[in-house]
Amino acid sequence: MAVDSDVPPIIAAHLNYLLSHSPFRIKVDQMWSASNNSAWVDHFTLSIPFCLDYIQWDIMFDVESPLSAPDVIFGTDDDKFPPFLLSVNDPTKSPLSTISNWNSRDPSKLLSLILQLRDMYSAYQKKRVEKVDDVRVKFEISTMVAREICRIAFVDYRMKNNNIFFTFQGIEMSLSSNVEQPEEVKFAVPLLEVDLNNLVPACPWKLPQKIYLQVIYPIGRNYQTAPSPPRLKLVSTPELRSLFSVEEVKLPPWMDGMCMAEYIPVLEQVLQKQMSEAVSLIGFRRKLIEALPPFFGRPLEADAVHFLIPVHFPKQQPTLILQSSQHFNTQGLPIKSSPLSEYPWSPRWELSEMASRIL
Description:
Layout: H1 9-21, E1 27-32, E2 43-50, E3 53-60, E4 71-73, H2 95-100, H3 109-130, H4 135-162, E5 172-176, E6 184-191, H5 196-199, E7 211-218, E8 231-236, H6 260-291, H7 293-296, E9 307-308, E10 319-320, E11 323-328, E12 334-336, H8 351-358
Antiparallel strand pairs: 1-2, 2-3, 3-4, 5-6, 6-7, 7-8, 9-10, 11-12
């Protein structure tokens, strides 16, 4: 995403660097000027991924003093978040140090500030969750922390011994509370200790692809019988959906008395099997594309507009959309047919047979 020309060049350099180098996808929701008399835009709102949701922070530069560090305004629900009062292991990597030593000519400074604040916000939310008076939540934290320590050690071992390098992101948790809804504790648990990008030949993805389990526990309920299971949802990074749709995964049942440390290994086995199947089908889809030109000619468009090969091919048959190169609608766009999928099909046919039956 390119920043508008209304942003002063020094500020634009910081924002462009942040959007292109962030390890996760940050969005700019709105931009505005602090002064009604200025044509320059120096304020903007960032939507920052956290715990499978977004937190919104206002970043406020001053066009009259563009060399100065920006102010950061946190969300209305985070008025008790004290980033400059939280201790850090390395003071030189704290937000206060970044602001005190702000260098406007170093475009990486804004991203560094946001990442440092996000790390502190994660620690702040973790402390809030740890104070929740709920037996199940306290037990989940104690068991998942042990799993996290083992997982970090496992990843570190692989990196040292197999030259495997990938971004490790641990469990995130947050406490949501407002007058309109009951309190809930949310966990975002990363799944599968593998680099999903390396599973795909000639991987086109820029950012690391991940699958997470969202676990939501309601707080403040008095259970007279066995507590109900938490709400569960699989979430993946957007690009991964072109290979594997987590929405179609049937989650294993959550048995009575189960905890996340018991549930997650079962779920990961299911995901590992389905992910392996999805990767193996990539080559099969490519072979189908190679089998089509003798029947359809060249050039052949094999994308979401003209020829859609579903993730579950060959169990699901491709969809064909015809497009005219000589006829256009009133908007000047080529006329297209409705999606066509009513033709003989069997996933057991040879690829050449599949291609001929589509025609």
